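User: Sequence in, structure out. Go.
Assistant: Echoing your sequence, followed by the structure tokens.
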Amino acid sequence: MSQRAATIVGGGIGGLAAALALHRRGWHVEVLEQAPEFAEVGAGISLWPNALHALESLGLADAVRALGAVEATGGVRDLRGRWLSRTDNAELVRRFGQPLVVLHRADLLRVLAQELPAGSLRAGHEVSAVHDSGHDLVVEHSGGKSRPDLVVGADGLRSAVRGALWPDAAGPRYAGYTAWRMVTDPLTQPPAQGAATWGRGARFGYTALPDGRMYCFATASLPAGAASDASEYAELLRRFGSWPDPIPALLAAVPGDAVLRHDLYDLPPLASFVRGRVALLGDAAHAMTPNLGQGACQALEDAVTLAHCLDTTSGVADALCSYDRLRRRRTRAITRRSARLGAVGQLSWPPAVLLRDTAARLMPMRATLRSMAPVLGWTAPDDRASATQSKDH
């Protein structure tokens, strides 16, 4: 039997994870990335227990944990610096089997990329068309044409694969607020715990990275495409420079040219993540706002679930139907939940802000963790099968 081949369009976290999961199951893989190199811009990423379970199924959880930081506690504060809610990483481990790990996105991308055959990573390859006649599957790109058995569209919010085969699907929708992301220089005395501070129509969060650095993020309710009169760093200082400690000190430690700004979007639900032998994955399938920290986590879940379905179901098309059934309902629910949390976090009317903060302060931590169980309690399909077998024996 000839080796099956997969073309993955998009060399981000989800695309590389899918390529690795398939490679480990004997597939020949190529990853087409339109950028001139496989790299992630300078920002952090939170990997919740469900993402660590996905990485564990790829054999990479230990390597990723070693590169990341695990904070003992964190939570949400109000504009006076008072705690509204707290989280405990030890309790996450007890309930869900893994901690919350924060690391630089570039480190995670490097861990994934170095496990793949060097020849499979093809930077500078822009996809121009995807055709699936049922008998012939063709990907046209700047390096020529590929005729794989499977195409995975992991090419982000404005996916070329989705545009080619889902031409009538609704486009991305603006969440109503913009976001800044940044990483500080190493601090001699970094904050002992991370936090997200909720204001009125704005938020500022921070969490530890290794080596004394902090990953920071901020949001503000603004029209899509609104431009700052000054630099983005100056805009951050104007908006958040007087917020509670340690936010001013963190901003002082951010290089002025290292602030990233992006308007935030999510994707309206698709009727299916698959078309024939083509599957969408990650943001291309279900882009979501970052309020739950689940964007990359869900892409990792997608990747290992897709590989599992292809490994356990005869025929690519049937396997993709199983993948769609397992992933679409779950990611739709998480996308909605993230949007709702973002709307709450961005409240600006003072009475609504007071009600929000009071409700958050009265919510016990155990209730918060219990409400997150449907998201964080996920385990890889192989893990569920192993658990069932162990229980049976």
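User: And one key feature?
Assistant: Confidence is low (pLDDT under 50) at residues 384-393.
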